[in-house]
UniProtKB/TrEMBL annotation:
Residues 153-252, 267-345 form the Ig-like domain. Keywords: Cell adhesion, Disulfide bond, Lectin, Membrane, Transmembrane, Transmembrane helix. One of its GO terms (biological process) is cell adhesion. Belongs to the immunoglobulin superfamily. SIGLEC (sialic acid binding Ig-like lectin) family. The keyword Zinc-finger does not apply. It is found in: Membrane. GO terms for cellular component: plasma membrane. This is Ig-like domain-containing protein. It is a single-pass type I membrane protein. It holds the Pfam family C2-set_2.
Length: 440
């Protein structure tokens, strides 16, 4: 057994080669950093004199200050039948990338890293030389430093649409071959309180890559709902040794609620028509007002309220008859257009019309009161309060009411009869002149 305390150095195509005589090792990375829970690959190759037949590789980890690691520092021995055992702490965590020693590839992967794995790693190759057991230990070492995990899982979220099934995937960081991590999903509803998505299902799978590494993936499948919009989902990975890493993502769910129209739809002439059309949706909907049958958009004041609600307010000052009719609010959301209709009616004061008046022929009094208005007015005759016997005929055409009253009066002395018209917007009183007719 011989050791090369001072190695000669040379530079190969992929790293520094250190030789003593015809025994060389190439450690392409002298300093490696890795993260707890994950793994590290120490790339390594060697060459030897022709008369030496390599059989096994041994890796040690010891204090950097120590001149050469000892047998108690073994972390890996490719000979399973030797009594030179690897430290229990490394048991099952170290493996060679290439098991055929004749390939002179001494690279190893150390899985399930802990911060205590930080240190200085040294290689020894054992074999036969001139039919005698022999071996050589290289003084060149590799320094590995293991830090707390920084890498986060990768969460992939497809476009979420209300009412549709969606599958989120979470991929654990690192391409290693160690223990299978535990992957859990948690959902935080509105207000950040931990809750759960009803009817969800999860699945776990491990993909083998390039022979010696694996990728661990968990999926979460559920039906999206509007209530999930702006809530968060966390994917947490737990490696052996209590190392955890997590990623939190906000869910954006495409949804749209019904189109709502608010405001007073019957307006008095000259007043303000003020209608608001609002839609709660994500992403915001494009809202327009049109007046049927015109196809042009009316001018509106559009706002985006909190709570994902967009609105368009239509304000018409000094309303005239032209402003009455059917209006339509259209909300364009993604590739859908939702509509809602509203009928605007104009109300006006009652007006007692020409053609109203009374005729007294002997003791038969006939009065006609014609009034127009919207809503339709009702006509009252104060005179009738003193009478029980009369006939009253009311006819309606469009917005006009014709109220004709006939009664018998004895000694009617008044020259006028009052007609009162009221439609809720106002009252009009008029004293109708009594025209006296004599004779037959
Ligand atoms: C050692 O073997 C591994 C696995 O086959 C390979 O990826 C790596 O490149 C090899 N290293 C050298 C130095 O040949
Ligand atoms: C999935 O549903 C189960 C109950 O079936 C629940 O315990 C878990 O928290 C849910 N997961 C999520 C992410 O909501
Ligand atoms: C989304 O949630 C965040 C935090 O809970 C909150 O500050 C924000 O206002 C919400 N946004 C919407 C559009 O609801
Ligand atoms: C229209 O109505 C809204 C809500 O009632 C009100 O805030 C706004 O001031 C009104 N606009 C006009 C011009 O009257
Ligand atoms: C947001 O909208 C939902 C449903 O439309 C409603 O229940 C909730 O009260 C609204 N929140 C606020 C702050 O307006
Ligand atoms: C309202 O419209 C009528 C008819 O067009 C017009 O005569 C009147 O001056 C208008 N009033 C106001 C306050 O604009
Ligand atoms: C609005 O008026 C139209 C006819 O002018 C009628 O067909 C429709 O049913 C009315 N809609 C409402 C909501 O009153
Ligand atoms: C109603 O009668 C008055 C007075 O006779 C007249 O000035 C007015 O023009 C008439 N109105 C109509 C609509 O006929
Ligand atoms: C009712 O109004 C319509 C439209 O304003 C008009 O064409 C029609 O002649 C009116 N009918 C009567 C009986 O006045
Ligand atoms: C009002 O009604 C009476 C009775 O129905 C009728 O004789 C009269 O001609 C009507 N007047 C008008 C202006 O329609």
């Amino acid at each position: 057994m011989f050791i090369f305390p001072f190695a000669l150095t040379g530079v190969s195509a992929w790293g520094q080669q250190h030789c003593v005589g015809r025994y060389c090792v190439t450690l392409s990375e002298r300093e490696l950093t890795a993260e707890a829970g994950l793994c590290v690959v120490i790339p390594c190759s060697f060459t030897n004199a022709d008369e030496f037949k390599p059989q096994h590789v041994v890796w040690y980890k010891c204090e950097a200050a120590k001149h050469s690691c000892s047998e108690t520092d073994i972390i890996f021995h490719s000979n399973k039948n030797t009594d030179k055992k690897a430290q229990a702490a490394f048991e099952g965590r170290v493996s060679r990338l290439e098991t055929d020693v004749s390939q002179k590839n001494c690279s190893i992967i150390i899985n399930d890293l802990k911060e205590s794995d930080s240190g200085s790693y040294q290689l020894r190759v054992t074999g036969e030389r001139n039919e005698q057991q022999d071996g050589f230990t290289f003084s060149q070492r590799v320094t590995v430093s293991v830090k707390g995990i920084k890498q986060k899982p990768t969460v992939m979220i497809p476009t979420l649409t209300e009412g549709q099934q969606a599958t989120l995937t979470c991929t654990a960081p690192g391409l290693c071959s160690g223990s299978v991590p535990e992957i859990t999903w948690t959902w935080r509803g509105a207000g950040g309180t931990e809750s759960y998505i009803t009817g969800n299902s999860t699945d776990f799978k491990t993909e083998n890559l390039m022979g010696f590494t694996q990728r661990h993936i968990s999926t979460l499948t559920f039906k999206s709902s509007a209530e999930q919009h702006n809530t968060t989902v966390t994917c947490k990975i737990r490696f052996t040794g209590e190392t955890t890493t997590e990623e939190t993502s906000t869910l954006k769910v495409n949804y749209v609620k019904e189109v709502k129209i608010t405001g007073v739809t019957s307006v008095r002439e000259g007043n303000v028509l003020n209608l608001t059309c609002s839609v709660e949706s994500f992403p915001p909907a494009h809202i327009v007002w049109k007046k049927v049958p015109s196809n042009t958009n009316l001018q509106t004041r559009n706002t985006d309220l909190h709570n994902n609600t967009g609105s368009a307010t239509l304000v018409t000052l000094n309303v005239t008859a032209e402003n009455s009719g059917q209006y339509i609010c259209m909300a364009k959301h993604l590739d859908k257009t939702l509509t809602s209709y509203v009928n605007v009616t104009l109300t006006w004061h009652t007006k007692i019309q020409n053609g109203s008046g009374c005729v007294l022929q002997s003791d038969a009094l006939t009065c006609v009161c014609i009034s127009e208005g919207f809503p339709l007015p009702t006509i009252k005759w104060p005179l009738l309060e003193d009478h029980t016997q009369y006939t009253l005929i009311t006819t309606v055409s469009n917005h006009t009411v014709n109220s004709t009253v006939s009664l018998t009066v004895k000694k009617h002395g008044n020259s006028t009869v009052e007609c009162v018209s009221n439609n809720g917007n106002g009252e009009e009183r008029e004293n109708l002149l009594v025209q006296k007719k004599h004779g037959v």
